[in-house]
Write a structure and sequence with these properties.
The strands form 4 sheets. This protein has a 7-stranded mixed beta sheet with strand order 13-12-11-10-9-8-15, with helices on one face. It has a 6-stranded mixed beta sheet with strand order 5-4-3-2-1-14. A 5-stranded parallel beta sheet has the order 18-17-16-19-20, sandwiched between helices. It folds into 2 domains: about 280 residues, Carbon-nitrogen hydrolase (Nitrilase/N-carbamoyl-D-aminoacid amidohydrolase); about 220 residues, HUPs (Rossmann fold, 3-Layer(aba) Sandwich), CATH 3.40.50. The protein is an alpha/beta fold. The chain is built from 22 helices and 20 strands.
């Protein structure tokens, strides 16, 4: 039996934001409710739980914050909460008023773990406008740095720029208005190594404010290349002048992971799994982040002058995660939302056609020469060429499509090529290559059929014709090979591998069908749309082998594997730097019910084997437009040695079979 996956060991970290039902000005009751929530969260493998600003008292206690009885009750409640959660394997962040040794009071977040206080973080930016008037009771945490000893509650620091660590995951804290500030302290936390920023908050609800708050959290996570967890005060705060909604939010590098319903009276919880490994990879590849100034402890940000930013370990390791609490897309290159894809498809086509148009303008005119096979890739390139010519007010007849049937060409695809050109009103040139290939093979004294020499002779003969024809008409050869084929090296070197400009170079195979289908629905006239649907129904094949009695068509995916898997592997390897073990675990989860673990492992091995051994083809790629976050251009996104060893990765994949 396979060992169950612990996603924690693959870089994931489970955290929760909680807005418990509040008992206003009753710290003891609030502490009991927080402890109850903590026990539930601990049973759900949560390692970090964040509660709202001033959650032990309620944010709307007003002048009660100045009473000794409320402060005494807070201290008793904190002691009870520490005791009641001491055995739980999670870290808590709770809000309460805190008095400093010199008689000031700060709005603070207290970090609790294993029954003691690990640190207290004061709020820096105190809102004192419109409905907010925190300066009546609290002072800013700027400049405050105290060591506090509280007996059973431990010895800890009161300071704004502390970081806390659970296993290898670090988090920093900013409180409510700190997020809205011109220079939020959370950015300093990120530059100092925080993977997550958590925010105990008490933001009021106004019309459209939730949208603003949601965007602020999401974009802050993007700027800090971090995870962001926000816990807002609930609807049981005082509603004398304002209403609170208990808004809970989570985001990761600009992507919203989840949010809670608002305005409930029984409390709310939002649990998410942050991808810490992905965040760290994004930071490594983003040189703007890696080269950003890190002046010591960022004392200028937090207003402190001590020599070192404290980093407190609250737990040696996070809780194991047996089931991942986030969606893993089967097709990460393709938006799941059809409406979003409509906008995405139009933009992709605009990028492709703009890039090609600029190349054509630089060439001083001429025509676009395209090898049109009747397959999916060349069909998309054909559509891009039509868009390109329309964009620069050139007639469609400046496109010179050529179909080059050979020994492996089927009647079906040859007919499709003719129908595409006819539907678009573009003359098609047909140049059979049977005789030329036969002569070439005789010159080589090569009689074997359906081997690599036989296949590549066809591919290179086609490329030779296309380039020579481009010379004749003073044109550009438009490439058709896609991103997935480039990743696998599924192209013939110096044949379909080469072009004057490859419009499909950054388009993965799984997106090809979506783009062609979108064009058929939104751009094509009925006659062209009918042919496009015919192309979409055609099996993917290079058509380089002659049909035999045993097999009429050699389907590509039977040879190299399902493109839906290879695109998944490619995305996670290139975009997030994931290794085989992590990719396999995510794929097993994403493709449950479609591909089993052994099948995924088999094709994952093929992917890495081909990706590494075929790099020499990518080193000499022609130019083409980048259309997404993943590209294999040797001049842009991906540089690797042609001779890089792959044995270690293959051994890791083989070990998955016995794990």
């Amino acid at each position: 039996m396979a060992t169950p996956t612990d996603f924690c060991t693959l870089g994931f970290f489970r955290a929760a934001a909680v807005a418990p039902a509040l008992a206003l000005a009753d710290p003891e009751t609030n502490a009991r409710r927080i402890a109850d929530a903590a026990r539930t969260l601990a049973a759900d493998a949560v390692s970090l739980a964040v509660f709202p600003e001033l959650c032990l008292t309620g944010y709307t206690c007003e002048d009660l914050f100045l009473t000794a009885s409320l402060h005494a009750a807070c201290r008793r409640a904190l002691t009870a909460l520490a005791r009641d959660t001491a055995a739980l394997p999670l870290t808590l962040v709770v809000g309460m008023p805190w008095q400093t040794s010199d008689g000031r009071m700060v709005n603070a977040a207290v970090v609790l773990a294993s029954g003691i206080v690990r640190g207290v973080v004061p709020k820096l930016h105190l809102p004192n406008y419109e409905e907010f008037y925190e300066r009546r009771w609290f002072t800013s945490g700027f400049g405050i740095d105290e060591t506090v000893a509280l007996g059973r509650l431990g010895t800890f620091r009161l300071r704004a720029d502390q970081l806390f660590q659970i296993g290898q995951t670090r988090f920093g804290i900013e409180l409510c208005e700190d997020l809205w500030a011109p220079e939020p302290p959370g950015i300093g936390h990120c530059l100092a190594g925080a993977d997550l920023v958590v925010n105990p908050s008490a933001s009021t609800e106004l019309v459209a404010k939730a949208t603003y708050r949601r965007d602020l959290v999401r974009m802050t996570s993007a700027r800090g290349l971090c995870g962001y967890l926000y816990a807002g005060s609930g609807a049981l705060e005082s509603t004398k002048d304002v209403v609170f909604g208990g808004h809970l939010l989570a985001a990761e590098n600009g992507i919203e992971l989840g949010e809670s319903p608002r305005f409930g009276f029984t409390g709310a919880t939002l649990t998410v799994d942050f991808d810490i490994e992905r965040l760290r990879h994004d930071r490594l590849r983003n040189t703007t982040f890696t080269h950003a100034d890190r002046p010591g402890t960022h004392a200028h940000r937090a207003g402190v002058t001590a020599a070192a930013r404290p980093i407190t370990i609250t737990a040696r390791r996070p809780q194991p995660i047996a089931e991942l609490r986030r969606t893993i897309a089967r097709q990460p290159f393709v938006p799941a939302d059809e409406r979003q894809f409509d906008a995405r498809a139009a933009e992709i086509l605009a990028i492709q056609s703009t890039g090609l148009a600029r190349r054509l303008l630089a060439a001083g005119g001429g025509r676009l020469v395209l090898g049109l096979s009747g397959g999916l890739d060349s069909t998309l390139a054909f559509l891009v060429c039509l868009e390109t010519l329309a964009r620069i007010d050139r007639p469609a007849t400046d496109l010179c499509p050529v179909t080059l049937p050979g020994p492996g060409t089927t009647t079906h695809t040859l007919t499709s090529a003719h129908q595409l050109a006819a539907a678009a009103g573009v003359p098609l040139t047909e140049i059979p290559i049977h005789a030329a290939v036969a002569q070439h093979l005789r010159d080589l004294d090569h009689e074997t059929r359906n081997d690599i020499v036989f296949e590549n002779a066809q591919a290179r003969e086609r490329t030779q014709i296309l380039f020579n024809l481009a010379n004749k008409v003073q044109g550009l050869v438009v490439g058709t090979g896609d991103l997935s084929e480039l990743a696998l090296g599924w192209c013939t070197y110096n044949a379909d591998h080469m072009a004057s400009y490859n419009v499909n170079a950054s388009v993965p195979k799984t997106m090809m069908a979506y783009l062609v289908r979108w064009y058929a629905q939104h751009r094509a006239q009925p006659a062209l749309a009918d042919v496009l649907h015919r192309v979409l129904a055609t099996p993917i094949s290079p058509e380089l082998q002659e049909p035999t009695a045993e097999r009429a068509l050699h389907a590509t995916e039977e040879i190299v594997g399902p493109y839906v898997l290879h695109d998944f592997f490619l995305f996670h390897f290139l975009r997030y730097g994931a290794g085989p073990r992590r990719i396999h675990a995510l794929a097993v989860r994403a493709f449950a019910g479609e591909h089993d673990s052994d099948t995924i492992r088999r094709w994952l091995r093929v992917f890495f084997q081909r990706f590494f051994t075929q790099q020499f083809k990518r080193t000499t790629l022609p130019p083409g437009p980048k259309i997404g976050s993943v590209s294999l251009s040797p001049r842009g996104d991906w540089r690797m040695p042609d001779e890089a060893a792959v044995a270690g990765l293959l051994a890791e994949i083989d070990a998955l079979a016995v794990s």
